[in-house]
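$ run holo --ligand "nicotinamide-adenine-dinucleotide" --emit tokens
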Amino acid sequence: ASLERLCLHESVGTKIPQAAFVDAFDGLDVRVELVGDEESYDPTDAVASFEPRPEFLEAGWVHCIRAGYDAFDTDAYEAAGVALTNSSGIHGETVGELAVGYMLSLARLLHVYRDRQREREWHDPAYERPFTLSGERLCVVGLGTIGTAIAERADALGMEVVGVRRSEESVPSVSRIYDPSALEDAVADARFVALAAPHTPETEGMVDAEMLDAMRTDAYLINVARGPLVDEESLIEALEEGTIAGAALDVFETEPLPPSSPLWDLENVIVTPHRGSATNRYHLDIAELVRENVRRYQVGESLLNRVA
Ligand code: NAD
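-- output --
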């Protein structure tokens, strides 16, 4: 059946302004409606949502407005024969820039100076502490849209970039590719390790005490992927004991990060509130992707970013 309606579930409001998102579908040749939890669906409906709902399985096609669709039960979608798509492919610039911002700050202490600024303190760090990114090695784990964007930007800053991916196929800007089974070798010589892989059974807890031990003591961990990739307790221990030098984290095991987390208080840690893709044009990027998939759906072409 072809689509008659595109339902924008109110949970999109978690990430983007609802009204602007509706407007971004101006001129689409199906009806566009903002819907809440009392809605019912049939196969002529498409749904775009931030959160999953069981009733979405009655629709014809469901789009997760996030790249990480781990909250959606892909098996249930397969079983119901309902297409599920995600929003990967659009976060390269936004999350790539955030990762570069983290690295620049960690290297040049912007976060430390800002902390001291609050105290009106003219801070003088140890001579050895600040460094340039140029010439430092970055290991990017997961070379999809975000990982590749981080690699390109780091390369442009003169960094040496290596990466971890499941296929050996080369990636521009990445001088050496390691297999996921060689993760500890891949990170051993890196000054920065950036996580950009999805949360899957395979990646869950991939950064554990052994991996942190394998990292240099002057290395920094960057997580712009998903919290569960990191065993947070081991990370906190490594940060407190100086096994690694610091971290910049956009994602956490529990979000929002609980006020009791020691991560808030560590000077060598930058905490950001899972806003890696948050910019003033995020709704437009998602809408463009969804519009293209509406077009494809109507003419029977395969959908972009189909994950179930
Ligand atoms: P993507 O699908 O383009 O890239 C993910 C890459 O990881 C793929 O190339 C995949 O092959 C690879 N991969 C999977 N398992 C791996 C493993 N075990 N080892 C190494 N590589 C592995 O997705 P993307 O748009 O680059 O996003 C990546 C992840 O980042 C998302 O799944 C999401 O969880 C997260 N994300 C976070 C934010 C944020 O706001 N911080 C925003 C968007 C996405």
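-- notes --
DSSP finds nine helices and twelve strands in the chain.
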